[in-house]
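Hi support team,

I'm opening this ticket because the web form for multi-chain structure prediction keeps timing out on my end. I have pasted the exact lines I submitted so you can reproduce it. The total is 1450 residues across two entries, so I didn't expect it to be a heavy job. Is there a limit I'm missing, or should I split the entries? Thanks in advance, R.K.
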Amino acid sequence: MTPGNELFVEEDEEMKSDSEEPRLVIKEEPQDGLPAVPEQPEEEDEEPVHVEAEEEDDEEEDDDPIIESIPLYINTMPSRFKNSLHILQYPGRAKARRLDQGHFHASIKPQSKYLEVKVPLDTSKFFDGTKVEDWGEEIGEQTLSGVLDPSEGGYYIAKVETDSEGNRKAVLVPIDSTAQLRTSFQYIDAIDNSAHQQKKQEQAEIHKTTSVQILQSAAKHTGTQANMDGFMHSLGDSLKHVKRFDEESWSLLSWKNDEDEITNKIKKELINGADSIELTTETKFDDYIQKLINE
Amino acid sequence: MPPKRKASRVAAESDEAFQELFQPEYKGKKLTDEINTAEDKWNLLPAFLKVKGLVKQHLDSFNYFVDTDLKKIIKANELVLSDVDPEFYLKYLDIRVGHRSKTPNDKLVLMPPHQCRLRDLTYSAPIFVDVEYTRGRKIIVHTDLEIGRMPIMLRSNKCILDGADDNTMARYDECPLDPGGYFIVNGTEKVILVQEQLSKNRIIVEADEKKGIVQASVTSSTHERKSKTYVITKNDKIYLKHNSISEDIPIVIILKAAGITSDLEILQLVCGSDPNYQDLFVVNFEEAARLEVFTQQQALNYVGKRVKTIRRAGAPKLSQLQEGIEAIATTIIAHLTVSDLQFKEKALYIATMARRVIMTMHNPTMVDDRDYVGNKRLELAGQLMSLLFEDLFKKFNSDFKANIDKVLKKPSRTSEFDALLSINIHSNNITMGLNRAISTGNWSLKRFKMERAGVTHVLSRLSYISALGMMTRISSQFEKSRKVSGPRALQPSQFGMLCTSDTPEGEACGLVKNLALMTHITTDDEELPIKKLCYMLGCEPILGVDSATLHDEGNFGIHVNGTLVGTTRFPGKFVENFRKLRRTGKVSAFISIHTNTHQQAVHIATDGGRICRPLIIVENGKSKVTAEHLLKLKKGEWAFDDFLVHGLVEYLDVNEENDSLIALYEENINENSVPTTHLEIEPFTVLGAVAGLIPYPHHNQSPRNTYQCAMGKQAIGAIAYNQFRRIDTLLYFMVYPQQPMVKTKTIELIDYDKLPAGQNATVAVMSYSGYDIEDALVLNKASIDRGFGRCQVVRKNTIQLKRYPNHTKDILSGMRVDEHGNPIFPHQALGPDGLGEVGARIENGQIYANKFVPTNAGESALGGASEPTNVESHRETPAYYKGPEPSYVDQVMMSVSDNDQALIKVLLRQTRRPELGDKFSSRHGQKGVCGIIVQQEDLPFNDMGISPDIIMNPHGFPSRMTVGKMIELISGKAGVLNGTLEYGTCFGGSKLEDMSKILVDKGFSYSGKDMLYSGITGECLQAYIFFGPIYYQKLKHMVLDKMHARARGPRAVLTRQPTEGRSRDGGLRLGEMERDCVIAYGASQLLLERLMISSDAFEVDICNKCGLMGYNSWCTTCKSSENIIKMTIPCAAKLLFQELLSMNIAPRLRLGDVF
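Hello R.K., no limit was hit. The queue was backed up. Here is the completed structure from your submission:
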């Protein structure tokens, strides 16, 4: 992954001792960047900036001094029911290739937590035009898909803002999930499937003409109505999920670009819309650890 | 007072054996004495043993099983559904052993264990479950339903002896020193030996350099299945191999099937950016391209096509794609089960395996060592019981389900069906299954298709030490016949974990090991909170890490129980923080963490079966345990756990030990570039309980210590405080056991001084009489008269009085008398009740139980109903005593076993004084038999008139190099003169200089040599004699049990040759080699006599005409007696001819004249 223009913080804001004020200790200079935008996934290739909330001030070592303390604010998406915030990662995609050109399509299977993004394909470079003939289809889009992994409160995006008076503040927004999007080659599978189907059909036709009819004389199965359920019973967990995934239909999302008005509005809201209550923690460090261990 | 402290107080009060620890004076130290940390830190050891005990590993494991694991098993199999009625269900809510739900603290009073021993019963507690089920339309909750009985490990928290003080123990007829940790099944004490095996769910990389094969394998073990996955090289290409896949799958295809579709990402995951690895790996892409596998679906189809499917009845047929998904999700690397669509963790695991293979291909030194103790896990009683119980519980449930289905299938039932009515039918299965497995040692688990024999052993009660030795024993799963030296060799990583000396000789050498004195074996800990903790400590979750940076320089993977959960760029800080949390008690003390720089990984282990040991933490060049802490320990304010809680002491397992620098002594602590991190508590804890008996073992040649470990278990001594209440098959007691003059700290810790096995003999090292060659000993007759080496042998004889179906039963009957009214000879020991009288002398051929069996026992009760036979006729079946020496009836016990049949045990006792040929040994692997018993007046004596109990030949020393024995003599002599008991603790003990000083002060030679006078001539001997006390053990091998001779006697029925073996009064065989000697010597008549005349001579009639054998001077083939010749041949030869005839081969004899 390449360093992008995003910033993400990987610390839980609760992770502070009781006495002290919440603060961020910046070890690496944060790069100015834009937070991710809800439901409008965009480029987010980032170098994780280590913004560590130190829990033990007294035992701070000499080689790791506190440079500056910045108050923390927490904010959430404007409407939690409608919007959610995700980090999208594009493994295998060069940093240089921006994601803001062309038209993007995104769709999601919310039950299976599966996201698909269709990205326009640059066919001018590293593209074997002759293969297209084999595949017999004009391939204009690259399909990227991946599972949304819930981040379970571990990931936040943060933006360090400097206001007019030079006071800095860091705004934290929790992330719902992360997803690594990988290319899927559905067009190859489609060809395979159709070939397979064709073969089957041919075979079935041959079969029909030659086969003798066999009369089955087996007794009726007990509990046919349980079979529906029984079928699900006997499938493995993973296969059940696959089955559910196949049955679920895609719901389309609209893709907004960086410069989009709505995007900017939400970004602003995220940064400034915080209730401007400085975060202090009441959870004692010991309690926190205890909670963690006993869960 | 905080509750915890209070609890430890209560425990302390209950354990009186350690009370003396808290007395103002302990082991010669007063509370006011100055405390020297370097010297006194060993006090942590008794404190450790107080909490942990010697068999704590067994108890911990069993407690974990009954308290935690049972609940997990119930949870995993909680539902019983019916195939017939979709409405019906039964759900297990909870499970308990030994107490009911309402009274969680009141244990049910079980039958005391000693009664179980005596009455041949099983010491067990009921298993209660709470269930919720449907009856018709109602849902019913039923609590405290008994589903069987669980054998209880003695002194576990379910045992009535748990926390019992000495008085309570005495009330239950138990020995307070008995360690527990075993089961009593059908009256026999059974131990489940600790089993050692390769760790589960970890990657092990091995290489065969000759064949150029590298393989990474992982044995996945979950509750449901056990399987092994390999990543191997074949012609420099990498494949994945699994038993349920018919052919090896190229690694790239399997990774694609697991969702890593792009070649770039595969390369990044496996090789990182290292060009060496990349070069090695690229060929694999060609393989996948050649097979035209590009997409995940294609890869899944490829895998699915090759899966060997075992379809259970009723399971739907899966498509190829589904088979592939199923294989990736559940079959391959089964311990990581994927239940949703995210296959990344699985892909990463496979990629990690491939990476390890690549690393080993590039650098062959990256292989793992199978024999390294850190790669081993110990399987204890609890784990084995849990495997067994889950199997039985599943069987129980499926039987129950079958039963319900049978009833529910009936269309019309007269009454509402209550499922619980039929559950009790099967409860015997669990009880019987557990009992059978423990009593036979055959662990057969259907779900793993596992058959293991010899898991349990009868607890050896030869002496206290042999029982202790058995409890700490570890047996390896390796085959004894394989000729590999690796698994048998002493591993450096064994230090402090497994005893370096205690291993048997011969075929099991190095495969059977023993735990060291201060060890703990972990039980399973929850993994999930640890994972969360890792994330909080700055570990990046693996799902968010991108493949390009995964193997970056300085990026360390964090593995929890072998599975990659995240990465960190600050491994040092991470590990330090984690350890800090552990030291403050936030995380379980038994979770280990260590960094492996070669693999760029941090490994956290929470699994059970790791051996670990406590060490003192050293920070900034200072031991954290100081004098004040030790003072608190001495005053009894602190227990061992307080040291743990305060972060002064921590447990390290073998892997973490490798991450630390441990100072042996306080003066070795340094603060150089590699600072010391830990300090040993006591160096003598490298030895185990049995090797700890040896005084000055660090002065001995090492094999001698090993020999002593084997012999210490054969020494006759005190067994337990309840030894005279025991009725065991065979027990040996020493009549006057003494605690050794030269003891060790281990001896005190394991209470060997309270239950010793041996006596302090005054030994003169000199030559005497010539009857002392080959290590034979000369014994003093007067010493024997005074009771030296005297022992008692008690043997149990069991008689059962059976009842038969036709209401007849076995009876006992009184003695028979002769014409004078005296009992006949065989009945002389009997009382009027037909049993031997206690105290009566019983000789060979006499009867100790006059039992009668009904003659009509086989007749059915129904048939005989027509004519009531009130006259019961009985046949005599008395129990005869057989033995060269008479015995005395010691105890007679009458009881009723669990099937309501009378059980009689007669205990017969012999008192034996040492005789020629009895075996003795010192504690230094120096064994010898008694060669001669000499009158005291003929023995040499010193100025004070002391004559030796034993004379030992000095030739025993030079080749054996047992210097420890010599020092034992000097220390013992100094102790006798000084009135003290001296210490011969390993790497310490009383100093030789001090001992010599005492000797000189008392007017003896510093060297331990005395001037002796000959007992025969009265002259002074020409040399000074090394003379003093040495602790001698009498071993169980005694002449009386082995002596055997035969002139004439029984013969085998078939061959008519003399029988074999002492027990059958057999002959002594002139074997093949002896025969060769006689042939070579030309002693043909002797040969004839030995092989035929004295053995199985047989006179046959041979027909010289047909060459076959006839009888009564008549040839049945020729129908004549004309050519019959009588001759003598071995019966075996005759038998051979007859057997040949029976298979249609006619051996014909042609006889000719010799002269």
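A quick check on our side: Chain A touches chain B through 53 residues (CB under 8 Å). Let us know if the file doesn't open in your viewer.
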